[in-house]
Every structure is written in C-alpha cells, then in structure tokens.
Amino acid sequence: MKTALVNISRLILALTFIFSGFVKAVDPLGVQYKIQDYVAAVTDAYNTGFIHDWGTLIAAVLLAAFEFVLGINLLFAIRRRLTSKIVLLFMIVMTCVTVWIYAADPVSDCGCFGDALVLTNGQTLLKNIVLLTLSGIIAWQPTLMVRLISKTNQWIVSNYSALYILGVSVYCLAKLPIMDFRPYSIGTNIHEGMQIPEDAEQPQFKTTLIYEKDGEKKEFTMENLPDSTWTFVDSKSEQISEGYVPPIHDFEISYNGDDITEDILQDDNYTFLMVAPHLETADQSQFGKINIIAEYAKRNGYRFVCLTASNEKAIQEWADITGAEYLFAKTDETTLKTIIRSSPGLLLLNKGTIYQKWSHNFLPKLDEKSPALEETPYGIMALDENRDSTAKTIAWYCIPLLILTLFDRLVAGIIALVKMLRRKKVTPKTES
After folding, report:
1. Sheet of 231-241: strands edge to edge?
2. Contact criterion met (CB below 8 Å) for 233 and 211
3. 34-60 confidence digits (pLDDT tens)
C-alpha cells in the first residue's frame, strides 16, 4: 500500500508537471505576458526595459524547462531523493503564491497551464493544495518510486529533456506556438466566435436597496422590502454571475474613430492583417518583406491593414522608417497580443476566417511574380500543416526516449538474468 501510494502520487505529479511545462514551452510569450502581469500587480506600475522585457522572457523559458524536466525526473524516478525535495519546495512556494492570488485577486487566472487550461484562482489554490499533499508523500518515501531507467542512463534522459524543451521554446519564439489554445487559432471564424447563443446564460445581478428611518440607514433586498415608514435613499447593483462570455469578446477595429470591424470580417476576399501591439518595440528587420507583401496585396485587390495599439506619433515614425504605405487601424493591446505571438505578425483572413498565421521571421514569399492566393498554398487553410508540425515536434522527443527506455530495460533484464543464472550455478558448489 505504501509503495502504491507513493507511485500513484509520483505519476500524478509527473504528468501535471510535464503538461504544465510543455504548454508553457510552446507559448513562451504568453507566459511572459502573465509574468509581467504579476510584476505589474506587485510593483503597481507598468514599465519597459531589459528586466521587464528580456528578464521576464528568460524567466518564462526557464520556468517551462524547469517544470518539464522535473516532471520527467519524477516519471522516470531520476535522482529520487533530490527530485522529491525540489518538488516539495517548489509546491510550498507555489501554494503560498496562490494563497496570495486567491486573497488579493491581482490576476484573473494564474496561468499555470497557459491558455490550454484556464483555472479560476480558487481552483488553482485547491489544485496546489492537492499537489502539495502528493509532493509530501513522495518526499516522505522517495526510494519507493520505481525506476523506469537505470542510474547509469538517467543523466541522458534529464539532459535530453532539458535540451528538447529549451529547443521547443526557441522554435516557438522564432516561429509561432506549434499548439494554439487561444480563440484566434487557424480555422476560427472571428465573427462566429463573437456571437452569443440565444439560450446562453445571462449575467446575474444582485440589487440592494438602501432605506432610512429615524436617522438609521439599512440595506434591503428586492424580496424583503421595508414598510412605508422607511424612506428610500439609494440602490446599488452587484454582478454575482458573469453569464456566458463568447470566446472572442474584445475584437474591435477602428480607423479614424470609425468602427470597421464588420467591414473587414464580412469581406468575401482575402485580407492581410499585420499585428503589432506596439510599433515602438516591434521588430523592424523584415519591414522590406512586409512592404513587398503589402504591394502584392494591393496589386491583387486584397486588403492589407496594420492593427496596432500605438499612438499616431509611433505610427508615423514606423511609416517614416519602413516606408510603409498600408492602412493603420487601432485595436486593443491585449487583443493583439492574444491574436498572434509575434510583433509584428501576419494573418490571412477570408470572410472572417483565419486561414494562415506567420511570424515576422517566417513570412510568406509573395512578390510581383507570385500568382493570386487562390493559386498558391498560402490561400489554403493551414490546419493540416499545424497538426503535422505538432505531431513531429512531439515525436522528436517521444520516439528516441522510448527507444532508449526499451533498450535500457532490455539490458537491465539481461544483466538480472545473468546474475540469477550465476547464483544458481554457485549454490550447489557451496552446499557440497
């Protein structure tokens, strides 16, 4: 029973850490934004600079790698005593953090599992209490964790896991997340994502009425009103239930003060949307390719619009530096960061449906010699391409690790068999 309890606890913790680390690694910018939210909540100020920008990004990548490798170490029972102590210490710290989050409510969700699984602050606290209990169990009897790899080869698994997960983060930073859990993934129709079903749950409000009598003020509910001797003073409403919130609820494009959202989403032709939350900090290295794509779009009758939250001065500076002649429209900063994890990034829409997404490092090769989008692979929805990329990335880790594990267990089995046969040969001679 003791061995079973320890190993069940170890398995739950391992899978949780592996999942948490992996979904963070495929979206390091999303984790960075969440860390910056925490920093802003603590310092009560938004700032930019090396620590705010690069420091939080490095922290996001290292946190993902730490959790993933810790999960793998638990799964394979690598360095059992040390790993169990680190897990226990980590969970103590994280539980204390989530107690603060639950009490102070500085962020709407902790970001433990990125956008793959969003938990409320209360759910996060409950989850961490459970994980803390499980980590205490494995720290109590770490040597009862059954090894899946020999001590001789365990360093290979740990080092390979660390290199792999760091490589995933770098790849997803350079390109785009191989798994997109946000509401603006390829194949999504933005207009449909903004709709509220007729039978959707409505927001619930609690109304409190304030009455006065003989100088005393008292609060009453609508179901419990006072008699006529009380005088009405004021009322207040409090939202007790948010109701149904559509996946996309904050997408709005404005140009010169006019809302052009529907005009773009209802366009039955292709539309390029360049996304740059802050043009002041956007990467300028590929502006030449962006201008060529904008010219290609104009030549073929497609829209090309830059969505940004920057002010007019920053827009003009970008245009002066890059020679941009395309349209600039305003959209909320948080929305832009959610749409694509690249600044600038590029989207291709058709009738409001997202067909393609590109990082500024991997822009489509479209110029004056390129045919219309209908005649190129770019004009086709890239769902299958994304699935293939995800499958290949996971296979690059799992297949070599599986081969190593099977080989290691085979060798361990052969060695154990040889030792057993030798003992059988030696036993008769000893007895005689």
Report:
1. 216-221, 204-213, 231-241
2. yes
3. 988 888 877 765 566 656 688 899 999
